[in-house]
Amino acid sequence: MFDGNFTTSSSTSTNTSTSPNKPKVKLGKYFFYIVAAVILLIILLRAAIYVVPAGNVGVITRWGAANRTSMAGIHVKIPFAENVIMMSTRTQKDESPATAMSNNLQVVSSQIAVNYRLDGSKALQVFQEIGPDYAEIVVAPAIQNAFKAATARFTAEELITKRGDVRQMAEDELIAQIEPYHIIVENFNIINMDFSAEYQNAIEAKQVAQQQVETSKQKLAQAEIDAQTVIAQAQGQADAQKALKDTGALTPEYLQYLFLTKWNGILPQVMTSGSGMMLDISQFMQGPEKP
After folding, report:
1. Helices in 116-190 by DSSP H: which ranges?
2. Domain limits of the chain?
3. Domain 89-195 classified CATH 1.10.260.40?
């Protein structure tokens, strides 16, 4: 009987200790599913929600084909089926070297800087026809072509003296080439123009020669002015003397006045021949003594 009670007590104790473990196993199994569901939800949300930054247009592709565009802000897409490609609508700068030929076959090396931007309303069309690398495919080659087309219309000397016309012509040419692709040109700048050393030396020599010619012309013109001034002064004096003579105003007293106005204050002296005596003629310059 003792053994039976002992056995019964042991079995009761065993059942009591194992019964609480059954709900714990079920709770652990559900917790795993909950965590997995939360992780999957986060992944789906991250795949479905996207942000288009300011100054960009988002091109949404569905299974690789362009579908639509999104402006700046938060948007939702189909996870895994749709992808977003950003295309900038901000002003971009392309600065690159360019080499061309002038009208008189002189090589011109320049540095070109162009500001341009994408028309955001046509981003989907640009993506479909050109792709996101439109700058390398369209803009860069067009800049080179526009510069070459403009410089070919001017001589090397005109490229220097008419640089503003060259820049404007190149900008107009670039606009005509890339605006059909919905790319807007904002500014075209020619930073510098370099020619061969031989041609630069020839230009400097020509400029020096032209400057010398201009200087000679100025000296000749000044000499002509001076000569005309002297002639005019002499003619004026002759006319004045003739007028005085005709009117009878050219009296001895007036002639003496003219002499005194031109006199430097030094009295002439005369040496008589043979005697070695110096005569002071100042006494002859005095008028008659008054009674």
Report:
1. 123-129, 134, 140-151, 156-161, 163-178
2. 21-87, 89-195
3. no
